[in-house]
User: Fold these one by one.
Assistant:
Number 1:
Amino acid sequence: MSPENLNQSPDSDVGSLNFEETRLTLGLPGVECRGCKSGVKRGFSETVDLNLGSSSSGCGGGDDDKRSSGENDVLDSAKPPAAKAQVVGWPPVRASRKNAMKSCKYVKVAVDGAPYLRKVDLEMYNTYQQLLSALEDMFSCFTIRNYLNERKIMDQVNGVEYVPTYEDKDGDWMLIGDVPWKMFVESCKRLRLMKSSEAIGLAPRTPSKNSSTS
Amino acid sequence: MESYSKRKRECPSSPESTQPSSFPDEVLERVLALLTSHKDRSSVSLVCKDWYNAERWSRTRVFIGNCYSVSPEILARRFPNIRCVILKGKPRFSDFNLVPHNWGADIHAWLVAFANNYPFLEELRLKRMAVNDESLEFLALNFPNFKVLSLLSCDGFSTDGLAAITTHCKNLTELDIHENGVEDRSGNWLSCFPESFTSLEVLNYANLSSEVNFDALERLVSRCKSLKVLKVNKSISLEQLQRLLVRAPQLVELGTGTFVQELTPRQCAELESAFNNCKNIHTLSGLWEATVLHLPALYPACSNLTFLNLSYAALQSGELAKLLAHCPRLQRLWVLDTVEDKGLEAVGSNCPLLEELRVFPADPFDEEIIHGVTEAGFLAVSFGCRRLHYVLYFCRQMTNAAVATIVQNCPDFTHFRLCIMNPGQPDYLTNEPMDEAFGAVVRTCTKLQRLSVSGLLTDLTFEYIGNYAKNLEVLSVAFAGSSDWGMQCVLGGCSKLRKLEIRDCPFGNLALLSGLEKYESMRSLWMSACKLTMSGCRRLAREMPRLNVEVMKEDGSDDGHADKVYVYRTVAGPRRDAPPSVLTL
């Protein structure tokens, strides 16, 4: 998944979150718009893969490469066991089990401000509502508020609102709900619950764009 | 009927005995023929020479836990009437890529010996053996009575070899191909069963990936009226599954294919009806990609379920809970950690008869993800399932206190395999080593036979094990211990120890050599990435000639260092088929 083929704002600073450059185009939920990428920027996309202390950089699709730890170099046994490097044959899971999960449509879910990622299997759900309910269950302090037909998630404890977004196959960040469910499952690479306050510059999509329905 | 090799009468009474044996030999043989346990038979053979002979003539099933501990020739000399052979080959850590690929355990020499000595061989069950297509073809062509082939964790063969079996073995009752490294070229092997072939009782090809010809499968299932076990692979759809079930309502064990598909309401009803007619199913597996949509179709078939294998179905807690509500008789459950602690609470609530639980990690290698199960889930199960005696639990956090409570709730553990996935991780609440957890396990669970330890562990864990685990037979250790003393405690204290496998621990020559006397009473010892040197291994080999001491060298490692060491007792002497990277000292 490479960002090179996108129009990145030349001012976007890969090393920091630069929200001023972020412009997400929105469609009102239910408007179908195939492949409407223009105007969607991912100025923060590379930085979204958060500094969670992990060694992976930016690419959710890179998961599969890590699975075959058997092919990695043998960890020097003199290293302290706390090192997070890949160790041959550890955890002791058989090869046939490693392959079992590959076909599921698992995507990572990041929540702004939360210290860890979760994963959901998009194949489990048939509608956006089901997905959002599941996210609500997972990050149990949230409730879903359908406010003016927009899908927003509210953290009851601290009153912060989140907007569910996702990164698609082309690396663009889109608002959840724009496209038909199946298309969303097909193209979604990862999810991010972004704080509403930081998702500034959101605007409804203007009809002058190609709005052909699928 | 098959002909038995007839025993020639040897001297009527052995020179050592002062009076003739009180039983005629024929009676003794008849009586001994009723013994099935390998251990019992071994004991019997030690009583006296007459009993040894009676036992060897009456034995039809032989179990060889390490294929290099004995040679095919020795086997054939002792046991003339074998019908069934169970053979295990590579060390268990070969499952995790720690053993060189060409290490050995090739079945072929055995098959040649069997063809000469046991032409009426019926059953072969292999685990971690190297099997190639040529061997499978040889097997198919040389044993006219061959009935049962079970291959577990074997590698080196392709589906062409399977085709040889299905083509030629006219009396086959069981074909069980499970978790092997198979080169999957096509599903053609299934179509090679002749149309006249009807004897199949067990078919398991769940871990192959190629699609078989469905019409051929459907016809096979239709005409094999004794089919009891059917485990298909992922390429079988729900619709196809329904058609198979309709033809085989007598199934006792079922492995489904992919459990998700767009079905019309009529098709859903048909599926549910098919399951409803399968009232004899006690084992269920497969269920790839099972979702809330179609799981309810299963419910009617779950009332007699005793073993549910969900380890390929990434279920969430709610789905698992709903499913378990229909499985009151469940004794064995395998799940993925996607069910999380909440799912395990449902296990505790719904499965009072549960004896075995295995929780596998859905994402073992992704460190960013913090989910899965914790000590809370294990605790919940222990409160609800007091009969639990077998557990395999992969988790990312654990506490000493939780384990102590768990074994208090379930003191009958025979198999306790805990894998805290981050090597050397302490109790996450107290930051202390996990020594007290395993101390509690060995103190409380007096029947413990198998133990796998993990987390941050000092020599104290091994002191506990040596002092208390008097029935322990198998111990697996990784990234643990502080010094040689730990291993010495285990070798000195665990009198029934049979298999010891150790990786990445600070145990060296002193520890290795402290077990000199012990290794002949064990099946094997594996030590990798420890502190052994070649001179220590050589000394062991010198002092104990009836042990094979094998050292596997890694590329580019220090010459004096013994990277991987495998020690096992044998009556067959050093093996002659080792590859260059394996030195037998």
Number 2:
Amino acid sequence: MQHGGQGGGVRGPGMGNCGNFHGGFSSGIRGRGKAEGKEWMPVTKLGRLVKDMKIKSLEEIYLFSLPIKESEIIDFCLGASLKNEVFKIMPVQKQTCTSQCTRFKAFVAIRDYNGHIGLGVKCSKEVATAICRAIILAKLSIVPVCRGYWGNKIGKPHIVPCKVTGHCNSVLVHLILMPRGTGIVSAPVPKKPLMMAGIDDCYTSARGCTATLGNFAKASFDAISKIYRYLTPDHWKETRTQAPAVATT
Amino acid sequence: MAAVLKPVLLGLRDAPVHGSPSGPGAWNASKLGGIPDALPTVAAPRPVCQRCGQPLALVVQVYCPLEGSAFHRLLHVFACACPGCSTGGSRSWKVFRSQCLQVPEREAQDAQTQENSLAAEDWCEGADDWGSDTEEAPSPQLTLDFGNDASSAKDVDWTARLQDLRLQDAVLGAAHPVPPGEQTALSPGLPLFLPYYICVADEDEYMDFVNLDHAHSLLRDYQQREGIAMDQLLSQSLSNDGDEKYEKTVIKSGNQTFYKFMKRIAGCQEQILRYSWSGEPLFLTCPTSEVTELPACSQCGGRRIFEFQLMPALVSMLKSANLGLSVEFGTILVYTCEKSCWPQIIRPHGRILYYTRRPR
């Protein structure tokens, strides 16, 4: 029979063993393995607000520059209109003392046909895992795209509203606006993200080591995401809004 | 990563609790929400918030006897559900640990002896069978406890003596002394969350679940478009030499710790509790100094070790009958005394450390 003594005299629990956490009156074994249609359980407060439909669109989140940490938020807001596309898969190698270790780097671009675009890059030992993780990263990096007109405001917006420059390490990418009908004049690598963003006419100018595909793609993506950071005259007027977290408490 | 990872048990929400069960069936069960059940010899804790003075609501009750120990062990986690205190940090949270000696088994009946020896040695195995019985019939280990409590006059005397001790002693700490008869009575104005049982699963069962079908279809599209096959991909590596390098993922929003947290729970998103005695907690954000330097146990001066943590999925599961009650947290880490000390004179134990971590 064991007595609970005081302080150090207590016979301690099995050191190094696990404690024992019993379940209660459990109604059967939980479903294990693949669960079809698993419900999303938000981890962050923003996730909870989105799930409860207190925040209805991504634009409200962008307005306050709230960091989006869960990719399910994007799924919830944009849902079925999201399309993924594998940009490029390339093997990369790391030299170890014994041999070379090969991993696959996947570039995945994601877009919805309504002015949102994202780019994800992930390395992994298997291609499928790399693609899967790159999709999540692409969702986390979704940015809105603003398009404008070159001359008369006829028809739909088709170009970047102003000259922008994006850079990633040594690569610089300039996007220059052009009249309708020019098409995208660029190397094949930035052409993909520009087409996905819905930009129809653009000149590009690149500088730096553009042979590095990763940097080149990221630089063009960076250029696209800088569009909204540019303060155009129609944004000069002051507006007052309330942050979603404050508004809903 | 040379250290062997300790096994982690996950707590998942189960069936709702009906009525107000009492007796060993109540304090033997882990549940979320509801009224705290107390061990037979200990008063149920009724703490108040340090910030606002309101009574705290029960968040989780965990029945977790230690392997090889002769004590029933119950942990209660309380939180303040007032809107003002929900972001209050660790001051609006309280954790209580109570223990009670398992009444020794009689050796009169052989069958009972066998069952008892099984219980003493194989507590961990029993945990896996817990869930396989139907809802109505109590599981085998529970009947053992019933047998212990009711079988002999000697046992009852022992329990009664312990109860006498409790009634005579002054109860310290913030818990109000509640005589056993009133334990199930609801005092008006006590904040309450809807109670559910918690069932237990092993983390390993959920670890390898990743759905790669979509990735494979994308890969097929890519191969079709570019017109190359998988083996050609590999051979490309030999031709171009180090233009592209391995890239460490840099996440724009959030940090690396959070990304790892999300990856780890991706297999089982509905987990509300991670139990790992003396294991490593899964941090939500980079741990601050208050977590890495833990104060020692206030009762025995021993080291404190990690026992379990509450996960963010619990926040959306804590619903109350009257709206307005909510708790907000990232994750709550509970550290308890390594020796699980319990004094000779039985008092409810308070002040086990708790930390809250909240992502912005």
